Amino acid sequence: xxxxxxxxxxxxxxxxxxxxxxxxxxxxxxxxxxxxxxxxxxxxxxxxxxxxxxxxxxxxxxxxxxxxxxxxxxxxxxxxxxxxxxxxxxxxxxxxxxxxxxxxxxxxxxxxxxxxxxxxxxxxxxxxxx
Length: 130
Hints:
Blueprint (H helix, E strand, L loop, with lengths): L2 H27 L2 E4 L7 E2 L2 E5 L4 E7 L4 E5 L7 E3 L4 E6 L5 E6 L12 E7 L9
Parallel strand pairs: 1-4, 3-9
Antiparallel strand pairs: 1-2, 4-7, 5-6, 5-8, 8-9
């Protein structure tokens, strides 16, 4: 095999590994949020950080019963979180602030306590003054 052909194959192999491996690497580095009935801890973690305009990738799983996930002040469909399964969600915020996420499926007497916050920082939509 010629040296140039070997080099070409190596470049193609590295490119394929990068295209396939990069998303898998990012997925594996995304922390998992655990949902538990409120009396057993609720959301963990229950405070998340995000930046305006940058996608926030979440992986969410349930440790006990079916939960739902939604964020107030956002136009989004609720996502069912099934026990033992991992759901991937990507959120992008256009304004800074504190957003509340909550459980949308009845999960017990303290369901109403299934709340958490996403603290979004960054540029706001303010009009610069002269």
